[in-house]
């Protein structure tokens, strides 16, 4: 029967079918009669022959079969009619494994459908919370929480006063540049001429060092270090005092503290970089090639400092890579993103985060563990959404908009931190400006002084922890070292997940990424709960021992928890 079917299939037919270039065996039949425009249906023998061909072919023939399914409707022939003996059509004719089994010969399946399902479940679950929140509280959006008039005026004053410390640093550098320039001028005037015994470069350098000692008396250099240290810390100190004692609004206080921290770090970078440039000039050693257009002390100008003031970086360089031109459309897109994301952060904070935090006060006061955990998990979703939108607003939209205005070329403000295989990789990738600053001005100098890399990393996290406590504890008027402790706890997490990063295995990367996200998902709302509770205790009005109640239902339409 097999040979008969094959022979029948190989008999010549009117207008023999043509094959595609891939050899898939796609038959196109044209009508041989004048009054009919329909293509002839293949006979049962042809279908049986095709089935046997699939049974005896290799993987290459299976690819051809896949190509047949991709033919456009215009090229494909009409569907053939069912064979006469359809019940004997072989269904199970090759060995196949389940696509989720290891012995499967099929390609690895895609799980995009499960991702879409997870997104639908996430949206629907949070939509329920949105409806519940609206039913309980209504619309809580308002402008009353923007701060009092005194808070706003103090914010404007600090915003204008803090950058003055950059120009004080410029004045200090100009003062120290005067004896440096005089020293270089004396060397050029009194240097021995060629042809003398000390004509070689090494001897001439040694003789000049003996004749004209470098202008580096210890008292002068210590004075410069003292002036820069006082200048960089002064902006941070008086901002801290003003915010802690005079500003009630924590949001405005956080903005002021972050601004002062940025200026403090920039002043320190400006002083340290110019110190090294001055050393290279005195030692007649080359500088990096991109600094040659602004060598020391020609870089000590008002324009150069102003550019560094507004550049989206914490690290000072005399020169930066510059983009060719300012793009209006790019800047407009980033400005729109800043506006939309800022509104979203404000809406989520006022409408969802604040009621959740207020309802958690009673559980925190009575130390009800179950209630605290429930509020923590409810706040975690809102906190994660606010943080991700805030990250996009600041590190992508704001910094790119500022870089476009300044034509700042290096815009690697972050990397794919969301795929981090360990906690340490996350801290290296998510905030590139801060990472570059600590690596250049703290980590590398400590390693060069003989410190171990691990000890240097601990020192970096210690400084970062102190700055986090200042940025969070001072605006909430509660320096309780929670942010400081949580930052230091990152060190054991980094040590625990570092082996997973070194394994270079898919399961290890997935496990390390889950550890990072879980710590991130729980750590931030925990700190928010603690600081909000402490802030509420400090600023509660009325009785000396305030009482807290849980008010999860709106008076008009109560909904049980």
Structure description:
Mean pLDDT is 79; it is low at 1-71, 194-212, 542-547 and 552-561. The protein is 63% helix and 0% strand. The protein is built from 19 helices and no strands. With 561 residues, the protein is mainly alpha-helical.
Number of beta strands: 0
User: Helical content, roughly?
Assistant: 55-70%
Q: What is the chain-wise order of helices and strands?
A: HHHHHHHHHHHHHHHHHHH
| Beta-strand share of residues | under 5%
Termini gap: 74 Å
**Mean pLDDT level:** 79
Radius of gyration: 36 Å
Task: Return the structural class.
Answer: mainly alpha
Give me the number of helical elements.
19
**What are the segments in which pLDDT stays under 50 over at least 5 consecutive residues?**
1-71, 194-212, 542-547, 552-561
Q: How does the overall form come out from the CA principal axes?
A: globular
Largest sheet geometry: none
Quick tags:
561 residues; mainly alpha; 19 helices; 63% helix; 0% strand; disordered N terminus
Q: Quick gist of this model?
A:
This protein has helices at residues 2-10, 44-56, 59-69, 112-137, 149-161, 164-190, 201-211, 218-246, 250-282, 302-310, 328-359, 361-365, 369-406, 423-429, 432-448, 453-473, 482-488, 490-503, 506-539. It is mainly alpha-helical and 561 residues long.
């Amino acid at each position: 029967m097999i040979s008969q079917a094959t022979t029948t299939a190989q008999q010549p037919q009117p207008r023999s079918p043509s094959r595609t270039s891939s050899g898939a065996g796609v038959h196109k039949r044209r009508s041989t009669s004048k009054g009919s425009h329909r293509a002839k249906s293949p006979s049962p023998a042809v279908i049986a022959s095709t089935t046997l061909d699939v049974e005896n072919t290799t993987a290459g023939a299976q690819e051809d079969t896949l190509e047949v399914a991709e033919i456009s409707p215009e090229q494909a022939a009409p569907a053939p009619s069912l064979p006469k003996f359809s019940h004997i059509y072989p269904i199970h004719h090759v060995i196949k494994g389940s696509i989720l089994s290891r012995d499967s010969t099929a390609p690895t399946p895609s799980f995009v459908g499960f991702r879409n399902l997870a997104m639908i479940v996430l949206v629907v679950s949070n939509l329920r919370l949105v409806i519940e929140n609206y039913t309980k509280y209504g619309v809580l959006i308002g402008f009353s929480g923007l701060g009092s008039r005194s808070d706003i005026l103090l914010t404007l004053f600090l915003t204008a006063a803090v950058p003055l410390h950059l120009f004080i640093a410029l004045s200090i550098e100009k003062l120290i540049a005067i004896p440096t320039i005089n020293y270089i001028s004396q060397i050029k005037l009194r240097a021995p001429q060629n042809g003398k015994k000390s004509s070689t470069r090494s001897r001439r350098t040694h003789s000049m060092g003996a004749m004209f000692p470098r202008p580096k008396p210890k008292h002068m250099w210590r004075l410069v270090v003292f002036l820069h240290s006082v200048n960089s810390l002064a902006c941070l100190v008086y901002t801290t005092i003003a915010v802690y004692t005079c500003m009630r609004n924590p949001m405005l206080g956080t903005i002021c503290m972050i601004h002062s921290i940025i200026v403090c770090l920039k002043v320190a970078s400006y002083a340290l970089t110019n110190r090294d440039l001055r050393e290279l000039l005195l030692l007649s050693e080359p500088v990096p090639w991109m600094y040659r257009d602004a060598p020391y002390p020609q870089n000590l100008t008002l324009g150069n400092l102003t550019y560094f003031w507004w550049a989206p970086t914490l690290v000072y360089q005399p020169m930066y890579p510059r983009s060719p031109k300012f793009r209006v459309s790019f800047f407009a897109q980033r400005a729109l993103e800043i506006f939309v994301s800022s509104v979203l952060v404000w809406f989520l904070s006022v409408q969802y985060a604040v009621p959740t935090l207020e309802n958690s006060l009673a559980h925190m006061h009575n130390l009800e563990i179950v209630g605290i955990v429930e509020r923590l998990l409810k706040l975690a979703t809102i906190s994660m959404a606010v943080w991700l939108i805030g990250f996009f607003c600041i590190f992508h939209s704001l910094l790119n908009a500022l870089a476009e205005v300044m034509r700042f070329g290096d815009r690697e403000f972050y990397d794919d931190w969301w795929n981090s295989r360990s906690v340490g990789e996350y801290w290296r990738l998510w905030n590139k400006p801060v990472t570059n600053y600590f690596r250049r001005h703290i980590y590398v100098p400590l390693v060069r002084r003989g410190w171990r890399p691990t000890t240097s990393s601990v020192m970096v996290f210690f400084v970062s922890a102190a700055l986090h406590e200042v940025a969070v504890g001072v605006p909430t008027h509660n320096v309780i070292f929670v942010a400081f402790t949580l930052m230091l706890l990152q060190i054991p997490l980094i040590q625990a997940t570092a082996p997973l990063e070194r394994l270079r295995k898919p399961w290890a990367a997935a496990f390390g990424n889950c550890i990072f996200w879980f710590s991130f998902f729980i750590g931030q709302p925990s700190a928010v709960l603690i600081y909000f509770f402490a802030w509420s205790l400090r600023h509660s009005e009325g009785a000396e021992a305030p009482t807290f109640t849980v008010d999860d239902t709106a008076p008009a339409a109560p909904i049980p928890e």
